[in-house]
């Protein structure tokens, strides 16, 4: 497995599979923050200490295999070009923080791209595991398996009263961030997300954009995750999030039903205008492209558009991002050049699906 394998496809292998409620919940993610015992945490550690952690991972886990995930590939962030870093961020395989701020950092990626273990981000380890659709409990169980596998060789920083010790106090305890990526076009169109977001925040959860903290909800895609880890068990955190997500799924379905009943022709017109824009535009900015893709995905889910895969939103939402466009062009591109190439790639992808 080489770096090229992770760069070549916009969509990860696991994203091509369907999961429960996949018309609304695109993915479920579990992230566990862990640190080595008796080592300085990354934010205060010296470069030599961080490099020792990198060496440990490269020596112990490079080309090893875990369950059905295939071979694991260790990649040093310092060895990547700026565009390669962008691509890994756009595919959610590493965080923006790891790409931008961590010199002595790395990532251990499974062949399926379902498991990503970031090394020397805010913490020594950030274990990420993804599943398609709404599968938080299953994702938690699988993440625990990875955690136990790593703990065979690593002694974690752990306190009997506080739990797992982490750089950021908000992660102390379980070290768990559970999140789902949701496509909520109907709730957005009916302006209900403006009302729901503060209510969700009051429940100890947070609503963010597609790339997490500080990002906007492009293409009506929202990331819902827990904020509190201390004083709650992993099971409690997941069950609380599952409860809220289940309610959001039901409300999104009701909003879609209302739109199709009361604004059917307007909705159909919007969907097919977006469909036409994607098929025929010669220049398109990322925000407009994301909005149009969201409309088309909604059209697929509602049966207005046939013979188009549901996964097209997942794939094209990555394909239209700056890093992937520049990687495809094999050079840096200006904003206008990206807009032209974005339109071209979308037209090509839509044409392939129509034939």
Automatic annotation (TrEMBL):
SUPFAM superfamilies: Glutamine synthetase/guanido kinase. The keyword Metal-binding does not apply. Residues 24-255 form the Phosphagen kinase C-terminal domain. One of its GO terms (molecular function) is ATP binding. Appears to be allosterically activated by the binding of pArg-containing polypeptides to the pArg-binding pocket localized in the C-terminal domain of McsB. It is an enzyme of class 2 (transferase). ATP binds at residues 27-31, 92, 126, 177-181, 208-213. One of its GO terms (cellular component) is extracellular space. It catalyses: L-arginyl-[protein] + ATP = N(omega)-phospho-L-arginyl-[protein] + ADP + H(+). Transmembrane segments: none annotated. GO terms for biological process: phosphocreatine biosynthetic process. The keyword Cytoplasm does not apply. Its EC number is 2.7.14.1. Pfam families: ATP-gua_Ptrans. Keywords: Allosteric enzyme, ATP-binding, Coiled coil, Kinase, Nucleotide-binding, Transferase. PANTHER family: ARGININE KINASE 1-RELATED (PTHR11547:SF38), ARGININE OR CREATINE KINASE (PTHR11547). Belongs to the ATP:guanido phosphotransferase family. This is Protein-arginine kinase. It comes from Terribacillus aidingensis. The lineage of its organism: Bacteria, Bacillati, Bacillota, Bacilli, Bacillales.
